[in-house]
Amino acid sequence: MPHEPCLPMLRELARCYQAFEAYSGSHIRGLDLTPAQFDIVATLGNTPGMSFKELGEKTLITKGTLTGVVDRLEAQRLVRRSASPEDGRSMIVSLTPAGARLFESVFPAHLDHLRLALGGLDAARLQRYEAALRELRAAFESAPAAEPAAAAGGRSKTRRPKK
Fold this sequence. Notes:
Arc Repressor Mutant, subunit A, mainly alpha
C-alpha cells in the first residue's frame, strides 16, 4: 500500500482527542458527573435555556443519548423542561437553581484543571492551533460524501449476470 501523507496527521489527531478525553473525563468524573452531563450543564450555564435541537447542536452528544442524559439530570433536579413560548411543540431545557449552582462550581474548577495542561501555551500559539483545527474541520465538512467502497477481498454488491 502506498504511503498516505495524511495518515500520521489523522493518527495524531485521534491520539490528541483520546488524551484530551482521558484528562478531561477523569476530572469530570471526580466532580461526580459524566462527561455528557458536564457537557449539558456547561452548555446551559449562563443561558436562559435552549431547545433539544439547539442543545444537540452545541454539545458533543448524539440525539439518542441526549434525551437520556437530560432525563437523568432532571431526576437529579439539575435541569427542567418547559414548553417553548415560540413553539408549544418544542421543549426548552434549562438549569434549575441547583443546576446553576453546580455550573458555578464545576465549570471554573474544570477550566482550572484544563489550564494545568494548556498553561504552557501562549495565546498566540493557542490561536494558531484553533485556526488549524477550524481549517481541518472545514475540510471534512466541505468534502463530498462518498459511498462506502467494498472491502478488498470482500463481497461485491453487484450481481453477476446469470449464464
